Amino acid sequence: MLKEDSVLPAAYQLPGCQLVNQTVSMEKKGCPRCHPVETTICSGHCITMDPVMMAPRLKVFKIQQVCTYRELQYRLFELPDCPPGVDPVVQYPVALSCSCSHCAMATSDCTVDSLQPDYCTSQTLNYY
């Protein structure tokens, strides 16, 4: 138990895993421009601990937890300015709730240096 005048370690002072608003860029091959869309993502700090010592015969599996989706839904966005013959509809995820869990490589970007959510390969953003 912490005393009233004690200071919390830095890790406990960071924002916890929570929903945050984020602008993401929508783009599709064949359509000329990127378009920003507001959505919710999961962001924040998850407390993890590694064992200090490992017994020789005891296997310890280190699973670092990350802030990730607990529940999400996909919404549709229709890109304007797409030429005839190109389907202008794209899907994007909307986080409904978040939790600290292992990173699901199939649905999440688990890299350290990932692209920013508003990155656009054509580097041309149109704001509507």
In short:
This protein has 128 residues and is mostly beta strands. 0% of the residues lie in helices and 34% in strands. The strands form two sheets. The chain has a two-stranded antiparallel sheet. Strands 3-4 form a two-stranded antiparallel ribbon.
Could you walk me through the main structural features you see in this protein, from its secondary elements to its overall organization?
- Helices cover 0% and strands 34% of the residues.
- The chain is mainly β and 128 residues long.
- A two-stranded antiparallel ribbon has the order 1-2. It has a two-stranded antiparallel sheet with strand order 3-4.
- It has a domain of 75 residues: Cystine-knot cytokines (Cystine Knot Cytokines, subunit B, Ribbon), CATH 2.10.90.10.
- The protein is elongated and about 60 Å long.
Any chance you could write out the topology, listing elements then pairs?
Elements: E1 18-26, E2 35-43, E3 66-78, E4 89-101
Subcellular location: Secreted
Protein name: Gonadotropin subunit beta-2
Subunit structure: Heterodimer of an alpha and a beta chain.
